[in-house]
Amino acid sequence: MKRKHIAVVMGGYSSEFEISLNSGKVVCDSLDSSKYHIYPIHILKERWYFVAENGEKHDINKANFSFSNGKETIVPDAVFNTIHGTPGEDGYLQAYLNLIEIPQTSCDYYQAALSFNKRDCLSVLKGFGIKCANSYYVNKGIHFSEEEIIKKVGLPCFVKPNRAGSSFGISKVYTLEELLPAIEKAFKEDSEIIVETAITGTEVSVGIYNDGSTIKILPPTEIVSENDYFDFEAKYLGKSQEITPARISEKDTKKVTFIAEEIYRLLNMKGITRSDFIIQEGVPYFIEINTNPGLSLESIVPKQVREAGLTLTDFFDVLLQNILNKE
């Protein structure tokens, strides 16, 4: 069988750049080299390029996403998308690749744009009866009342950038005096802010993917942060326990996985997603969905994949075959 040319895109334009590079490296190292020619592609604001084994950088021709491998010009058969944040998780890259007819492993551009915008995603899912925390929206340059915000969401509450990941710009607020500094911090990441009631309970993350014929649910992970919440340190600097499978009852497991699958279907998702919930008194509250979840070895989804009895090589192969078989 002729080996396919696979471009593994990583990097991006956001604060999650370094995290994406780790995810991309794991994918490159894990893909079956007997089935695929693998090309690590860095997408940066200033330059898009392929990194050859000798370290040479070859620019991407954005007209058709072609590049030189040092001997010939390559147009990839498919793109494995590992960019967290813009432009790989918010729909821009998906739309571009769709226009030039190169399949990619993440969801389609509309679903990416919708899910990346926390406000819009919550609004859509609330309309389908998915339980979410109370929220209040603030835009940069638009007047807001701190007292009105607290009246709506209460204390404690979370202040989050609307379109950011990896907990960049997030604060947990306990007093009215802490609210404005938290909003100013979030504005450093985004011009749109969401303020949410702090739900207390067990935090659980559910990975879901399509194996080509059916939707598969990975074993849920329970997140126990050493910090006040699952912040950047907890996610990436070892300040948390990520327990797979989650130490929750069979009843709660069925509830949270049912809702996660329902969200995957409602949003018409593809590829691998990871949905985060907090289970409060037996009720799962949806927090957010990640359409390009972290794939580094310490990330949640790879741990769930291994718990499910799969290797990363087999798992990534499924994601690629799903799109290659539709060519």
Helicity, in percent? 25-40%
Total strand segments: 17
What profile does the largest beta sheet have? 6 strands, antiparallel
Distance between the termini: 16 Å
- Broad shape: globular
Order of helices and strands: EHEEEEEEHHHEHEEHEEEEHEHEEHH
CATH class value of the largest domain = Alpha Beta
Q: How many individual helices?
A: 10
Low-confidence blocks of residues: 230-236
Average of the residue pLDDT scores: 93
Assign the structural class, choosing from mainly alpha, mainly beta, alpha/beta, alpha+beta, or little secondary structure: alpha+beta
Annotated CATH topology of the largest domain: Rossmann fold
Percent range for β-strand residues: 25-35%
Explain the overall architecture:
With 327 residues, the protein is an alpha+beta fold. Helix content is 31%, strand content 27%. The protein has helices at 17-30, 92-99, 109-116, 118-127, 146-153, 176-187, 232-236, 250-266, 300-307, 312-324; strands spanning 4-11, 36-43, 48-51, 57-59, 67-68, 73-74, 78-81, 135-139, 157-161, 171-173, 192-197, 202-210, 215-217, 221-225, 240-243, 273-280, 283-290. The strands form four sheets. Strands 12, 13, 14, 15, 16 and 17 form a six-stranded antiparallel β-sheet that branches. The protein has a five-stranded mixed β-sheet with strand order 4-3-2-1-7. β3 and β4 form a beta hairpin. It is globular and about 65 Å long. The two termini are 16 Å apart.
Short structural summary:
This protein is α+β, with helices and mostly antiparallel strands and 327 residues long. The chain has 10 helices and 17 strands.
